[in-house]
Amino acid sequence: MFDKRSGSLKIMVTGSGKLDYYRHGGDSLQGRYHFYRLHPLMLQELNPPDQETLTNLLRYGGFPEPFLAADDRQSRRWSREYRTRIIYDELTSLEQVKDTSAIEALTIRLPDLVASPLSVDALRQDLRVAHETVQRWLAMIENLYMIFRIFPFGAPHIRAVKKEAKHYHFDWTLISDPGRRFENFMACQLLAYCHYRQDYEGEETELRFFRDIDRREVDFVLMKDQQPTHFIECKTKNKSVNPALKYLLQRFSRHAVRSNRPGAS
Predict the structure, then answer these.
(1) Which of the chain's ends, N or C, has fewer CB atoms near its CB within 10 Å?
(2) What are the helix (H) ranges across the chain?
(3) What predicted TM-score, i.e. pTM, was given to this entire model?
(4) Which of 110, 107, 64, 109 lies closest to 85, judged by CA?
């Protein structure tokens, strides 16, 4: 149908994370479609993008159903049903999984670890499974867009940590601590921006974080063509500038440095 009527016919196909699985198999459609990743709502997509809207986004999450309902009970129920559907429906239909209850336990444990380097070895000990098993489970739930991971930014002239990743949840209401929830929210907003630049503009953009062996940390580093363009620190209070931002500025003086907090422009 598309080959015969491509001049007059436009088709939009939407779906869950299953689409990302299935598009890698079957007939190649190279050149006949564009792949876009849908994200939770972004602040600038809403009208008006003011403090009240930001407060509601942080409270109810960015998925349309709980956000529009603006009800705490509805938000909690939606999160539980979302987790159950992904693990017991989508995941089991795509992967050979024997211990779904352990994977669910992993997803319940992960929100407490947001914003810190994710130790697979610690998770292995908690869940009493092999290191490779935890890695595989993390990849599974990441492929189904429950979580995403970002990796350290390093350069030849900075002594950066290069191994452990940080992870965040697309449903940031799972994080109870206000500061960590805001950081998770900002991670989602920045990842959506990176994916837009990749999927629509065709640019090589990436979201990373900075942490070095001297324990200096910056929450996010925006990359383009493997070079940093922005260093971003997230705070819920108007505190002094993070010294790590100044450290990076000295080494990448042409790049923007920003400290974001709720209500800041």
Answers:
(1) C
(2) 2-5, 18-22, 51-60, 64-69, 72-85, 92-94, 100-109, 120-127, 131-143, 178-199, 243-251
(3) 0.87
(4) 107
